[in-house]
Amino acid sequence: MNYPTLEDYVGRTPLVQLKRLPGSLAAERGNVVLAKLEGNNPAGSVKDRPALSMIMRAEARGDIHRGDTLIEATSGNTGIALAMAAAMRGYRMILVMPENQSIERRQTMKAFGAELVLTPREGGMELARDVATRMRDEGRGRVLDQFANSDNPLAHYEGTGPEIWEQTGGRITHFVSSMGTTGTIMGVARFLKEKNPAIRIVGCQPAEGAQIPGIRKWPEAYMPAIFESGRVDLTENVAQAAAEDMTRRMAREEGIFAGISSGGAMSVAVRLAQELRDAVIVSIVCDRGDRYLSTGVFPA
């Protein structure tokens, strides 16, 4: 008998209806807000999907072989997911990340056996990406490059998008997602638009001055190569306070313990539910809240 392995449980995450947050106005307008709970993946985030996809597809092409060293720049979730996937598949994993990321993220990566290279916080993810590239050029390992690797959005085109379509019975009208590497929104948008071009794709980026883990507004020189602006119908700016408040409300009012980028996207989804009529709005809940406890977003 062949038993399932851990990688068999990446994906197929729950889609649940919010009962309290949308409020009575949304109900009067016939709107439904649904949360795709990606924290239910084995390593706790939506990034499990592209991490496994990038490693297994690179293996299949013969680009990497077990025992190789992999290098990746990350702000957290992709690094955790890659560390898990590398442990499962037999790779040495070096993760390059800004030093100001939460201690829970760093500890989780190390628990999976990854090695960390911390870069000065002032340089942000841009510096982390530069350092990873330099390490690759020095021959210290292979960079999978989530920002330019088509295997990233492909995981969502083949997995997340079809799941949402099936779970809503094809009734989805709006898809809301934070934008970081943009792999999730690119892959899901491509699939959903093929099914129904009328579906609106809403991307969330940080408002001026906001520092929201997992949501980025990239300088032009660092814009992810996988990003295609034409796949996003509407871009919404998310304020720090709105993201953090919604993150706390999701836990208190819906029992959904999630990270700050999820709160940012959900704040947009709930607002849309006050404005639209007869809409089925799906928002990605990227990860779990336990990796943000030290940030102070949740009351002690």
Short description:
The protein is of the alpha/beta class and 300 residues long.
Structural notes for this entry:
The protein is α/β, with parallel strands linked by helices and 300 residues long. The chain has nine helices and ten strands. The protein has helices at 23-28, 48-61, 77-89, 103-111, 124-137, 151-167, 183-195, 240-254, 260-275; strands spanning 15-17, 32-37, 69-73, 92-98, 115-119, 142-143, 174-178, 200-206, 234-238, 280-285. Strands 1-2-10-7-8-9 form a six-stranded mixed β-sheet. Strands 5-4-3-6 form a four-stranded parallel β-sheet, sandwiched between helices. It is globular. The protein starts with 14 loop residues before the first strand and ends in a 15-residue tail after the last strand. It is an enzyme of class 2 (transferase).
Helix amount, in percent? 25-40%
Class inferred from helices and paired strands: alpha/beta
**Largest sheet descriptor:** 6 strands, mixed
Task: Give the beta-strand count.
Answer: 10
How many angstroms separate the termini? 48 Å
**Helix segment count?**
9
Strand content: 15-25%
Q: Which regions have little confidence, pLDDT < 50, spanning 5+ residues?
A: none
Task: Output the strand order for the largest sheet.
Answer: 1-2-10-7-8-9
Query: Roughly what is the average pLDDT, rounded to an integer?
Result: 96
Rg from C-alpha positions?
18 Å
Order of helices and strands: EHEHEHEHEHEHEHEEHHE
Give the overall shape: globular
